Amino acid sequence: MGGGRRAAFFALDADLPFLTGLDARIAAMVAPALADMGFDLVRVAVLGRESPTVQIMADRADGTLIAIEDCEQISHAVGAILDVEDPLPGAWTLEVSSAGIDRPLTRAKDWERFAGHLARAEMNMPIEGRKRFAGIVLGARDGHGLMRLDDGTEVALPFAEMRKARLVLTDELIEASARMMRPAASSKENGPDEVQAGADAAIGDVPPADTRKPGARSGRKPARKAN
Q1: Which of 66, 139, 166, 215 could form a disulfide linkage to 70, CB 3.0–4.6 angstroms apart?
Q2: Weakest mean pLDDT among 86-90, 166-170, 197-201
């Protein structure tokens, strides 16, 4: 008899990213702990084979952007879980970051939360003859992200075939994100300029681990003793 197909480990939960394989396994390991701490897991990505880098992207559960102090807490918690569960052979590096403003849309609830904003999506397989889409996010339904394209056509993009999706930075998105800043950044002590500065600081890519000390740590499996 021929060998059976290996089932993919695929996370399809409104509160979890859409992931497969090792990324999904690590997401399942760390998401409950982050939830207990008041954070949402946005994305997990394991990059590289020798001495891999584990990238963790998170938000606060109330939807506001996380700060450096939050990255430190998440780094300690996730690092401890990876040490115990041991999903990675050899040494590894952990990077923790905020999702930022022009964030990836990795969960069904992201598509619901950012309905009305402009986004781009790329599929693994062609949908209606194309792999790349850009338009207004309409929400999520039955395992699909809904989008209205520039020509007015509405499409349903299956999460199971979605390679990546991300918000497009617009003035409307920046304004909406400024309203979602943490209370400390939007309190009466800070004026509009300070709130906008906080939103601007969340735009762009996260520095690599060696330049982002508070959100990065390294781990290594102990050497195995020979029998």
Answers
A1: 66
A2: 197-201
71 vs 77: CA distance, rounded Å = 10
Quote the Cα angle for 68-100-135, to 5°.
175
What average pLDDT does the segment 74-81 reach? 97
Q: pLDDT tens across 89-124, in order?
A: 889 999 999 988 999 999 999 999 999 999 999 999
CATH of range 108-201; options 1.10.286.20, 3.40.50.1100, 2.30.30.280, 2.30.30.180: 2.30.30.180
Burial class from Cβ neighbours inside 10 Å (0-12, 13-18, 19+) for residue 27 reads buried
> How distant is the alpha carbon of residue 222 from its chain centre?
30
- Could you tell me which residues come within 8 angstroms of residue 63 by beta carbon, excluding any fewer than 6 positions away? 113, 180
Provide the 3-class DSSP secondary structure of residue 93. Answer: strand
Residue span(s) of the chain under CATH 3.30.300.70 come to 21-100+204-218
- Give the pLDDT confidence of 134-189 residue by residue, as tens digits: 999 999 999 999 999 999 999 999 999 999 999 999 999 999 888 776 444 444 44
Q: Do 112 and 138 form a contact (C-beta atoms < 8 A)?
A: no
